[in-house]
Write a structure and sequence with these properties.
alpha/beta; Rossmann fold; five-stranded parallel sheet; binds CO-5-methoxybenzimidazolylcobamide
């Protein structure tokens, strides 16, 4: 089995120590962090999602897989973030209220930092007002929101509306993303951008801040 397949297997089994060790091994073998991330970590988590949906595994198994994903991302983090780059803009980031999923959001944060943005990460379960207050107080020009549940997606609209209500929309732009979110949804709620994955989110944030 290749090291990439072994990492994926370790993640699906929820073995954080194995994932951490193998990720380190993959780096030493010269594999790129992007390849390890997409092929093994995101690939493994996709399998976990499918098995959870089919009731083949249960919530504790998903939690262990999430812990293993975190362990792998921690090894990759320094390689994805090129330290010492001067800030090219500030982004407030969070998973919306009611949503505890934060792996994708964390990935977006890591890649934004890697691209030179200062990221103010509010964590998960973030209330609409907290997004807007933080962006205003910290002088951020972009609010990035992540949602993994169809039930929490409407909260994104509340943030977009609040930015407009407070007449901040000329200087604070919004971007939304997450598995159930689409370009069409982003347009419907009046968000300024949609990122289909973490790398695309970085491109979209760059366009928002240079427009
Ligand atoms: Co939950 N969960 N979960 N879960 N979970 C999903 C989302 C689900 C699709 C599983 C399923 O049924 N197949 C389902 C949602 C169904 C729906 O809404 N239609 C679900 C459910 C139902 C639930 C609970 C309700 C289960 C329960 O309690 N009965 C519960 C809800 C808790 C809550 O939030 N209130 C729950 C709990 C959990 C755990 C806590 C166990 C754990 C989360 C741990 C954590 O995040 N710290 C968990 C996990 C791990 C998943 C799955 C398996 C994996 C999610 C993930 O991390 N993917 C997920 C199934 C799946 O998505 N296949 C599932 C990897 C990650 C890299 O991808 O987050 O999509 P993702 O991010 C991507 C893109 O979406 C994008 O970039 C990333 C890739 O580069 N992206 C952005 C994300 N945010 C972005 C923001 C941007 C731009 C792009 O701009 C700002």
């Amino acid at each position: 089995m290749s090291v990439l397949a072994e990492i994926k297997d370790g993640l699906v089994c929820g073995d954080d120590e194995r994932v951490s060790e193998l990720t380190q091994q993959a780096i030493e073998q010269g594999l790129s962090p992007q390849e390890i991330l997409s092929e093994s970590l995101i690939g493994g988590m996709t399998i976990v999602g499918e098995r959870f949906k089919e009731h083949e595994i249960f919530l504790p198994d998903v939690l262990l897989a999430a812990k293993a994903m975190h362990a792998g991302m921690e090894v990759l983090r320094p390689l994805l973030i090129d330290a010492g780059i001067p800030s090219i803009g500030k982004v407030v980031l969070g998973s919306v209220q009611g949503d505890l999923h934060d792996i994708g959001k964390n990935l977006v944060g890591i890649l934004l930092k890697g691209a030179g943005f200062e990221v103010i990460d509010l964590g998960n379960d973030v209330a609409p007002q907290s997004f807007v207050d933080a962006a205003k107080e910290r002088g951020a020009s972009v609010i990035g929101m992540s949602a993994l549940l169809t039930t929490t997606m409407p909260t994104m609209a509340k943030v977009v509306d609040l930015v407009k209500e407070r007449k901040l929309d000329s200087r604070i732009k919004t971007i939304v993303g997450g598995a159930p979110v689409s370009e069409m949804f982003a347009r419907e709620i009046g968000a300024d951008a949609y990122g289909f994955d973490a790398a695309n989110a970085v491109d979209r944030v760059k366009s928002l801040t240079t427009a």
